[in-house]
């Protein structure tokens, strides 16, 4: 059932093989054995992705319920519903995770010695259910889903560059000016070279000219301080550099609306006490660190 769900959720047997770290031949054989055992075809193997048959859709829905029951049974057996204990898996964006989540998590582990934690710092949006993540910190507006979200703060995205770069290339006066500038883009976002400005009816999107693309927000900041061009990053990451004058903030009146930061976890019949303890402990502390206000 685990292999079947992985294949359906990732879209192919090869992707399921990579996710589960099981040889592709084993994945394919297990699926064939399952269909033979049930005497029914579950999957149609197309050239691009798998498609479920009608029987397959019903069986997959039942599998999800069964796997959820197994997880609940395991948590009950290990005492996770009786006391805060066990392993807590957390996902967070690199910058917010490193500067804010990790320090709070360390305090939490001191307070709850029966809990151990694993934190995944990545700007990739993880699938909490597939990857068995208990709770995630998410940036941006959240899509409608079965996830439960708690707002932590609003965080600004700022545009900046080094004084030397601006002296050589000039200071942009409006978003459209960025087309003629060297911009540093970050491939953690799907639309890395399309920067939004303003909000509401005044919102606009500019396709910037990127000469350097990086896969780390910290690398983008380093490149900007080394005069490589204009960068857009979270305000937290460049506050000290802006205060020292190493970077200059640009187009402040055209900045997009602040981006929400949220704690997100799967909706479930019973929240494990390790997760409830973390939510109660971390929420007020993260809000304080991120400058949360009720406005």
TrEMBL record:
- From which residue to which does any coiled coil extend? none
Tell me the keywords, alphabetical order: DNA-binding, Transcription, Transcription regulation
Entry annotated with the keyword Ribonucleoprotein: no
The keyword Transcription regulation is assigned to this record: yes
The record ties this protein, via CDD domains, to: PBP2_CrgA_like_2
User: What is one Pfam family matched by this protein?
Assistant: LysR_substrate
PROSITE patterns hit by this protein: HTH_LYSR
> HTH lysR-type domain: from which residue to which, for each copy?
1-53
GO molecular function annotations of the record: DNA binding
InterPro entries, alphabetized: LysR-type_TF_proteobact-type, LysR_HTH_N, LysR_subst-bd, WH-like_DNA-bd_sf, WH_DNA-bd_sf
**Classification via PANTHER family:** HTH-TYPE TRANSCRIPTIONAL ACTIVATOR TTDR-RELATED, HTH-TYPE TRANSCRIPTIONAL REGULATOR
> What family, per the record?
Belongs to the LysR transcriptional regulatory family.
The molecule here is called DNA-binding transcriptional LysR family regulator
């Amino acid at each position: 059932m685990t292999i079947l769900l992985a294949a359906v959720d990732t879209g192919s047997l090869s992707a399921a093989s990579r996710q589960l770290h099981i040889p592709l031949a084993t994945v394919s054989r297990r699926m064939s054995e399952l269909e033979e055992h049930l005497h029914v075809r579950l999957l149609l193997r197309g050239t691009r992705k798998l498609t479920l048959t009608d029987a397959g859709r019903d069986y997959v829905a039942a599998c999800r319920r069964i796997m959820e029951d197994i997880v609940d049974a395991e948590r009950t057996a290990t005492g996770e519903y009786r006391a805060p204990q066990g392993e807590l898996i957390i996902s967070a964006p690199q910058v917010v995770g490193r500067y804010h989540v990790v320090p709070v998590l360390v305090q939490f582990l001191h307070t709850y010695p029966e809990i151990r934690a694993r934190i995944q710092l990545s700007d990739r949006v993880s699938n909490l259910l597939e990857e068995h993540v208990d709770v995630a910190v998410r940036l941006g507006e959240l899509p409608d889903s079965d996830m439960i979200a708690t707002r932590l703060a609003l965080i600004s995205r700022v545009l900046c560059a080094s004084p030397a770069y601006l002296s050589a290339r000039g200071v942009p006066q409006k978003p459209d000016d960025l087309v003629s500038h060297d911009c540093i883009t970050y491939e953690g976002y799907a639309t890395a070279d399309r920067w939004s400005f303003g909000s509401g009816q005044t919102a606009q999107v500019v396709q910037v000219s990127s000469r350097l693309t990086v896969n780390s927000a910290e690398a983008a900041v380093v490149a900007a301080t080394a005069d490589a061009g204009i960068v857009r990053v979270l305000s937290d990451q460049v506050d000290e550099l802006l205060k020292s004058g190493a970077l200059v903030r640009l187009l402040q009146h055209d900045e997009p609306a602040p981006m929400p930061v949220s704690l997100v976890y799967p909706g479930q019949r019973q929240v494990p006490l390790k997760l409830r303890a973390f939510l109660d402990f971390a929420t007020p502390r993260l809000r304080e660190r991120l400058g949360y206000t009720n406005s």
